[in-house]
Amino acid sequence: MCGPYDPVVRVEIGLLGGFTVCVDGVALPAGEWKRRNAAALVKLLALAPRARLHRDRVVDALWPEVDLDAALPRLHKAAHFARQTLRSRDAVVLKDEVVSLFPGDVLDIDVAAFEAAADAALRPGAGSADACTAAAALYRGELLPDDLGEPWSEEPRGRLRSRFVQLLRTREKINDTFGGWFSSLVLWRMWSIGRPGWRAGTRRLGRSWMSGSGGCGWAWRPESGATAVWRR
Predict the structure, then answer these.
(1) What's the topology of domain 10-107?
(2) Does residue 61 contact residue 152 with C-beta atoms inside 8 Å?
(3) Rounded to an integer, what distance in angstroms lies between the CA atom of residue 89 and that of residue 82?
(4) Residue 223: CA count within 13 A, CB half-sphere
(5) What is the DSSP string of 37-93?
(6) Alpha carbon 217 to chain centroid, angstroms
(7) Domain locations in the chain?
(8) Disulfide check for 136: which of 70, 113, 154, 167 has CB 3.0–4.6 Å away?
(9) From first to last of its 232 residues, what are the pLDDT tens digits of the chain?
(10) What count of Cα atoms within 13 Å lies in the side-chain half-sphere of residue 120?
């Protein structure tokens, strides 16, 4: 468990495939988040540009049914418990009507890394098949799968999923031999996300590929799930 922080720390926040927080290489156990609003505040800020939002936008996202005067005490309470959980008085800072996450520290957020890599890979004339593949690999799963019912998570979840598929489609266009692998990887992602109706399709694709003479398909491994494999 993390002790008192140094003046500047490295904080890694994972939002893709699940919510994780790691401070200076030490992971915060998921059970430490006793207050749902505190966790939601950290997640919301981690999704924001530069990990900061105006307090009114925070209130509108987390407590849309409550007016500002009634919601501000909730915001301060959520920020208090977030600081308590993260063991830093500077974890969530409210100043000049702006709410910031770890201002002044080194903040590494997987969503930001994925979007930056995707932007570079998809830039006209600058991308490559390898760049698309590397960027797609940063998409470790659907955004915050434990928060599917939260309205504030819907838009970024759809945007990131679309960006991931765009990377794979661009990679397919660059390299014609990528087509089979693209189909397999998309199906694997849909399987991992647990979307209904895709499991039968993946089984059919697997049987079809196994009966063919070559190309790319997938193999099911109990320890890792569906994995794209090449067949000569």
Answers:
(1) Arc Repressor Mutant, subunit A (1.10.10)
(2) yes
(3) 9
(4) 0
(5) HHHHHHHHHHHSGGGEEEHHHHHHHH-TTS-HHHHHHHHHHHHHHHHHHHT-TTSEE
(6) 26
(7) 10-107, 177-232
(8) 167
(9) 344 445 689 999 999 999 999 999 999 999 999 999 999 999 999 999 999 999 999 999 999 999 999 999 999 999 999 999 999 999 999 999 999 999 999 999 999 999 999 999 999 877 789 999 999 999 999 999 999 999 999 999 999 999 999 999 998 888 764 454 555 455 455 545 544 434 444 444 443 333 343 444 434 343 433 344 433 3
(10) 12
pTM confidence score: 0.76
Give dist(CA 10, CA 91) in Å, integer: 12
Of 208, 202, 129, 205, which Cα lies nearest the Cα of 169? 129
Give, in order, the Cα–Cα distances in Å from 138 to each of 62, 123, 152, 161, 197.
28, 17, 22, 12, 25
Quick one: residue 23, left, alpha or beta (phi over 0 = left, psi -120 to 50 = alpha)? Answer: beta
How many CA atoms, within 13 angstroms, populate the side-chain half-sphere of residue 124? Answer: 0
8-state DSSP, 128: -
Tell me how far apart the alpha carbons of residues 100 and 55 are, in angstroms, rounded to a whole number: 9
Residues counted in the chain: 232
**Distance, CA of 12 to CA of 128 (rounded, Å):** 28
Sole residue written with tokens 């490559």:
128
